[in-house]
Amino acid sequence: MNKTEKGENQASCDSLDQSVLDGLRALESSGSIDLLSRVINLYLSSSIDLVRLLEAACDSGECEKIEQYAHGLKSSCNNVGALSLGHYLESLEAEARNGMIKDVNKSLTTILHEYDRVTAALTQELVLKCR
Amino acid sequence: MSLNNSDSLGHQPDLPFLDADDCSGAVVLVVDDDPTLRLLMKEALQQVGFQVMEARDGQDAIDLFQQIIPDIILMDVSMPVKNGFEACEEIRALPYGRYLPILMMTGLDDMNRVKQAYKAGATDFLVKPINWVILGHRVRYMLRSAKTLEQLRESQKNNQALIDSLPDTIVKVAINGTVLDYKAGDGGSLKMDKKDVIGYKLDAFLPKTLATELSGLVLDVFKSGETASKEFTIKLKRNKYVYEGRLIKIGDYEVVCILRDITERRNSEEKIHYLAYNDALTTLPNRSFFNEWVSNRLSYLRKLNGFLSVFILDLDNFKQINDTLGHNIGDALLKSVALRLKQAIDTVCDSQHGCGDECEVLLSRFGSDEFAVVFVHPRHAIPVEAIASEMHKEFSHSVELLGHEIFITASIGSASFPDDGRDLNALVKNADTAMHHSKRHGQNHFRSYSRSMNARSMDRLTLENSLRKALDSNELLLHYQPQVNLKTGKIVGAEALIRWQHPERGLISPDRFIPIAEDTGLINSIGEWVLGEACKQMKHWVDAGYDINRMAVNLSSIQLRQPDFIHRIRRIVSSVGIAPSYLEFELTETTLMRNAERSISLLHEIRDDGLVLSVDDFGTGYSSLSYLKRFPIDALKIDRSFVQDLEQDSDDAAITFAIIAMAHNLNLKVIAEGVETPQQLQILQEHECDEGQGYLFGRPQLPIEFEELLKKQSD
């Protein structure tokens, strides 16, 4: 492993919990071919719609929808080890459920930023896997 | 970092107790709006052999459920369209949904959701994030326990069906007496609503007596741990119910009471008991009941030194009434007798003879026209005379039955404990003897038992009855024993001896039945028959030309007492047409001496007619020589007991010789009875005894055999 790779790995480590990914790898090795790649691809393709919907909901300030999309996205994030993102989404979900979002723009910005990191890290996982 | 280096986690935990085939092919419905989760679920479950169906929300799940009926559902909570709680609740209400295992998936941090999940009917919950490797096993366990539960439910259902089909009332009771469960039985008396019973103490809904008894028993069973059973009788609304209760301890804290209504069974048992112990006609207790009752009383009277008297009452001439007026009248009469006896008992109990509250009385019917009454008193002897007289009073007037005026009397006998017998059999037998004695002394009499009433009298009575029939049914016959002149050795006479060939008992000795015949007066007709038969036989032999000149017939003192005795024998003798001089009457010393003065004149008359008289069994009775001289007798018959001892040269021998000498002095002929040996014969001959009779010359035998002897002699 070269230095760059290691750095990239560390970047992904911040946003992705390796133990979750290890769990997926374990499941893959016990009989599910390409499971990790399939899960990541599924996440990447399905999460983007939810992120757009969440953005829209935040813009319009509809708490119910914010709660729903945050919850849906959270679940997917947790499955791929994006626990930090999952945590941000959970906070937003909780605030939305209570109808008291402190700073919706700030939360959304944090979430979108982290989402980018997650997708980058996952894409890197895919790339590494392909190698 | 090697991405493939996942050995530590990649190996499935080895769970050997989990059978791989256990649930293979089972269908799992995964419900989640998150596609990544569905994908992971599917992969994880397929790896362990499940089929996986997917639904994206609650409504989707409900629709799919109805199409495929999965074996288990894994369901997310927050979903669009319909959330997991709602879906779970709805599925529970659907066919096959009630017991289906449903696992709700929720975050560990949200306890509220866990609670809500159970409330919605979830079987269990799965915590997110999910451990994918363990998941398959988790689901398999869940299915297995669901299966076990299903089997348990099935067996419970069977048990319940079994329990429900039992006719018993079943009450499960806690140690503090509170009812935990209840099932009504078939018996109407303990049918209650479950809600009125469960959670309450026994006395809150059971009749007080039953509740008290049952609670006591429940405690006993808790303490001892042993199964108990008991019969309970309760009265409800004037009806009597009988329950058979069985109590079984289950675990440490519960007792199950099984109460079976056995009222019907008990009623029919009672009916059977009634029929077995009561006489159907009069409804009085029967002899079996009487026997048990008396035996029972005697057992405690022996300890108490108490008193008991048995009265046996037999209607006089009941058979005649039954035969002439018919059974209807007979039955009605028996019923009226039962009433009259009850009346008599009431009168006794109310009167001063009554023994107060301590006195117990039983009236029973033994059968046919025989009744028995028992009086028991723990301290006083029973006034039997007064009681019998009270009973007789009831028979002093006639009754009208079905248009007939009927008068009947009763013979009563009594026997009392302890004097006349100490057990049931002795008392009944002796009371019966006493009753027969009173019957013999005329109708409507009472006798209390006394020891002088021969113990054999029962047997005598049956003999008496047969004897009455014996004459008519030709059971009596005569044997003849030769009397031989000791000088010539020739048969000179015959003694007619009566025999009774009883159809069942065989030959009955005259010693046995002659006393009965004398007691009953039957001796008169029997005696006349004997005389007639003997006369005919003698005439036959005389007419046939045999050398025989005397036929001896025994006479009883009873016969002599008949006022017209002489006329009777004259009539018989003349009707046969034989000369009286062929006939000899044998009388015992006792017969002669009894009423001696009257006998003398009667015997003179007999002798004047030409008959010969002899004294039978001489030497055994009391004889007054002075009287003997005055009797018109011709011969003495020395009793066999003297003859038997002749060879021993004993005192008896001396007496025999003295009798012979004395008789000769009085011009009486001497006949020795019971001569059995040539030695005896020789001694008798030496002492000039005139005649002899005994086995040496011939046994008593049938006329045809006797005739053979006569024939031989004349040849």
What global shape of chain A is seen? elongated
What average pLDDT do the residues of chain B reach? 86
Give the overall silhouette of chain B: elongated
CATH class category name of chain A? Mainly Alpha
The CATH architecture classification of chain A is Up-down Bundle
Annotated CATH homologous superfamily of chain A: HPT domain
Overall number of strands of chain A:
0
State Rg of chain B: 52 Å
User: Low-confidence runs of chain A (pLDDT<50, min 5 residues)?
Assistant: 1-12
**Oligomerization status of the protein chains:** heterodimer
Which two protein chains have the largest interface (Cβ within 8 Å of the partner's Cβ), and how many residues from each? A-B, 29 and 28 residues
**Largest sheet: spatial strand order of chain B:** 18-19-21-22-23-24-25-26
Structural class of chain A: mainly alpha
| Sheet with the most strands, sense and barrel status of chain A | none
- At CATH level 2, the architecture of the largest domain in chain B is Alpha-Beta Barrel
Instruction: Tell me the number of helical segments of chain A per DSSP (H or I, 4 or more residues long).
Output: 6
* Structural domain count of chain A: 1
Q: What gap, in angstroms, lies between the N and C termini of chain B? A: 159 Å
